[in-house]
């Protein structure tokens, strides 16, 4: 993939309430940088095509890809702060959801039951889910990978799975949108906090101007919009915090189709 003006992508919380504000944020960043693409590239068949591109100017990825496949292949710019309740700054967590009429009241009652997760390379959808159950000593059942948090929620709501871990920012967005799927689910538990989404640029690019531009642009966006797309401010974490998070296990078999 090649783009003479670079690639900018902030794809993690794209939805009806965030598409416009995210584009506005990029316009503010671009004005401060003095260069860059006119618009964000928000969707791709494989986000790694964007994250790994030598043309990447500004990107947002997930903690698990950052500490695995992207390690040493991108430059860290900063960490988003979603400002979640009872969560340290620069960290996020997931909610474990079940159907509203499911009688389960704790993790033990979910032992061995089918789960939905967005991607095997997702911190919030798979790594957080598997770590949460392992810490409680509760075995997960077969897993259905759905490609998106919202699709995982639908899988639970329609009975194709009994539980899922949904990133708390996505869950809050779904509830704010009046999403009918969210209305059929309830939160049973929350996972432990881990470092939030890294902002990255291509390997070898100076991150300092990008960090300054993004930090200066964020106050130009309404606070409610910043909270909706999960970037209330930009923080700098020690990258070692990401690499200290244990890798997830291989999905238990069989993986559901």
Beta-strand residue percentage:
15-25%
* Measured distance between first and last alpha carbons: 31 Å
- Unreliable stretches, pLDDT < 50, 5 or more residues? none
Mean pLDDT: 95
Computed Rg: 18 Å
Describe the structure.
With 257 residues, the chain is of the alpha/beta class. It folds into two domains: 7-83 and 195-243, D-Maltodextrin-Binding Protein, domain 2, CATH 3.40.190.10; 94-192, D-Maltodextrin-Binding Protein, domain 2 (3-Layer(aba) Sandwich), CATH 3.40.190. It is built from ten helices and 13 strands. The strands form three sheets. It has a six-stranded mixed beta sheet with strand order 9-5-8-6-7-13. It has a five-stranded mixed beta sheet with strand order 1-2-11-3-12, covered by helices on one side. Helix 4 links the parallel strand 6 and strand 7. The protein is globular. The protein starts with 6 loop residues before the first strand and ends with a strand. The mean pLDDT is 95.
Short characterization:
With 257 residues, the protein is an alpha/beta fold. 32% of the residues lie in helices and 21% in strands. It has two domains: 7-83 and 195-243, D-Maltodextrin-Binding Protein, domain 2 (3-Layer(aba) Sandwich); 94-192, D-Maltodextrin-Binding Protein, domain 2 (3-Layer(aba) Sandwich).
Structure keywords:
D-Maltodextrin-Binding Protein, domain 2; 6-stranded mixed beta sheet; 2 domains; 10 helices; 13 strands; 5-stranded mixed beta sheet; alpha/beta; 257 residues
Q: Could you give the topology of this structure?
A:
Blueprint: E1 7-9, H1 19-33, H2 47-51, E2 56-60, H3 63-67, E3 74-81, E4 91-92, E5 94-99, E6 115-117, H4 123-136, E7 143-145, H5 149-157, E8 163-167, H6 168-176, H7 180-183, E9 185-190, E10 194-195, E11 198-202, H8 208-217, H9 223-228, E12 233-235, H10 240-243, E13 255-256
Helix pairs in contact: 1-8
């Amino acid at each position: 993939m090649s783009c003479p003006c670079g690639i900018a992508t902030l794809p993690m919380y794209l939805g009806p309430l965030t598409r416009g504000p995210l584009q506005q944020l990029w316009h503010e960043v671009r004005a401060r940088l003095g260069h860059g693409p006119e618009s964000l590239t928000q969707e791709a068949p494989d986000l790694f095509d964007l994250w790994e591109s030598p043309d990447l100017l500004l990107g947002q990825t997930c903690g698990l890809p950052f500490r695995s496949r992207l390690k040493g292949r991108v430059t860290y710019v900063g960490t988003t702060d979603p400002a979640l309740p009872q969560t340290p700054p620069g960290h996020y967590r997931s909610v474990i959801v079940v159907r509203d009429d499911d009688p389960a009241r704790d993790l033990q009652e979910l032992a061995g039951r089918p789960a939905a997760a967005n991607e095997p390379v997702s911190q919030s959808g798979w790594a957080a889910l598997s770590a949460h159950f392992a810490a409680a000593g509760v075995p997960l059942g077969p897993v259905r990978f759905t490609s998106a948090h919202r699709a995982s929620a639908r899988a639970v709501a329609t009975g194709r799975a009994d539980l899922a871990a949904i990133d708390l920012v996505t869950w809050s967005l779904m509830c704010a949108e009046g999403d009918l799927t969210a209305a059929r689910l309830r939160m049973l538990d929350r996972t432990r906090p881990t470092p939030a989404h890294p902002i990255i640029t291509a390997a070898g690019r100076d991150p300092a101007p990008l960090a300054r531009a993004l930090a200066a642009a964020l106050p130009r966006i309404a606070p409610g919009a910043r909270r909706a797309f999960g970037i209330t401010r930009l923080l700098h974490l020690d990258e070692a915090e990401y690499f200290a998070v244990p890798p997830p296990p291989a999905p238990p078999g069989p993986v559901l189709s």
